[in-house]
TrEMBL record:
Coiled coil: none annotated. The lineage of its organism: Bacteria, Pseudomonadati, Pseudomonadota, Gammaproteobacteria, Vibrionales. It comes from Photobacterium angustum. This is Dihydrolipoamide acetyltransferase component of pyruvate dehydrogenase complex. The keyword Zinc does not apply. Forms a 24-polypeptide structural core with octahedral symmetry. Residues 1-76 form the Lipoyl-binding domain. Residues 141-178 form the Peripheral subunit-binding (PSBD) domain.
Amino acid sequence: MKAFTLPDLGEGLAESEIVQWHINIGDTVKTDQVVVTVETAKATVDVPAPYSGKIVHRYGNEGDVINIGQCLLEIDELLANTSSVQPEKISASSENHTSPSTTVVGNISQLDKHVDVDPIYDDANQTVNLHSIANQHHPLIATPSARLLAQKLGVNIKEITGSGANRLILDNDVYLAYQQQIPGTELLKGSRRNMAKNMTRSHHDVASVTITEEARLYHWQKNDDITVNLVKAINNACHIEPALNAWFDAETMTRCLHKTVNIGIAVDSSHGLYVPVLHHAEQYHQEGIRRWIDRTAASIRSRKIDRHQLQKATITLSNYGAIAGIYATPVVTPPQVAIIGAGRIMDKVVMEGERVKTIKVLPLSITFDHRACTGGEAARFIKALVNSLESPPCDNIES
């Protein structure tokens, strides 16, 4: 019997959400067969089986958040070869050998051996000896993180039935108990969890300043593609004022100005906020940008977006005006130094000489990291952005 734990999926990610199991208990799998799909803060990843065998147990349900090193599956590689072995021999063998394991779940298969979990304390603050309760029907054991989480959330851990091996209480069991205790609460997962972490990081690390302006859309037609026009205008502004198409590292106090424009475009979905990246935006023509947006949006809806599509943005666009809103204070995501927000197009009455005229205007908001950009650089950028949007349409970018 071998325990298969969640491997390190890269990018320094410590946790993942189970999106879909592709196997059931009792199924026979082959090496490299996809057994589960998980979603990290970066993308969805198909996890293959590391060896062939029969699925004896799987841990976690779809929607659960699991950490690197946490047990996913128990696979019996030798099930076919050991089916003829007498039960007495198997029992004797199990008494003399302890299967090695690097996970908490693997360590609790034998309660008369070392258990790498925290004990539960009774009301008299006396430790419950796990050896003394090894023969009881359901000993109460929990992972250290689950016990700490229960204390933070005010959940009575003694009333929780663990979903892990031998009724081990896991973090997800505590969250479920808390959800039942206070209806309407939910554990943030996937992109929502990642958004919460990124916003906390930004609020703590970035010296953000927002500047606003509006573009007068004299030359726009009724069927003009707003997002495509914004992408083209951002690309143009980045070449005129490159200071905002940059990364900033506060620890080394270094700034990297990018020649290539990689635009992160915020996409709202039922799963949360995603920001796929249009790499080398300067190489796309108008129709190419629209095809990329449609194709990427479909990938997000099906939760099949690749990891590389969410990486290496040099500047970000949030077109929140497609839903509602005029001006905003968008949040910069480090190491980027700027984000552009586009509001709802609206009518505005203006004076042209002695005449009163109604025109369409597009509200714009740019938040920038004042540690890496000066106010002058930000003002020049938004001026270039406005000039590009106000100019007559001319799609001269090659595909």
